[in-house]
Amino acid sequence: MGLLFTAERLSEAISGWFMVGRTDVLGRRRGVIAFLGLNILAQTILIFCPWYYSRMAGYILYGIS
Questions:
Q1: How far apart are CA 45 and CA 64, in angstroms?
Q2: What is the domain partition of the chain in residue ranges?
Q3: Could you give the C-alpha distances from 10 to 3, 4, 32, 65, in angstroms and in order?
Q4: How many CB atoms within 10 Å of residue 65?
Q5: Dihedral sign for Cα atoms in the order 50, 61, 27, 13
Q6: What does each C-alpha distance from 22 to 25, 33, 35 come to in angstroms?
């Protein structure tokens, strides 16, 4: 269980370095739509997929979004 949350926090930190200023390039509306789409996909994976590695992928997407 701890590895899932560690993966989420690491993906959050790494994406923070790469996503800085991305909404300036995309525009605020497109950026919000893109990251909300990733967030919805991540939450759907977390809710409906019971397998460990799919949940890890969901938490990584959740951290990125």
A1: 14
A2: 2-64
A3: 10, 10, 21, 13
A4: 19
A5: positive
A6: 5, 13, 11
Q: Residue 35, by phi and psi: left (phi above 0), alpha (psi -120 to 50) or beta? A: alpha
Angle at Cα 15 formed by Cα 9 and Cα 53, nearest 5°? 55
Tell me the whole-structure pTM to 2 decimals: 0.81
pLDDT tens-place string over residues 11-59: 989 888 887 877 788 788 888 898 899 999 999 999 999 999 999 999 9
Tokens 């926090």 correspond to: 9
Encoded tokens for 42: 């991540």
Single-letter amino acid, residue 55: R
Largest CA distance in the chain: 37
Q: What six digits make up the tokens of 60?
A: 């990584």
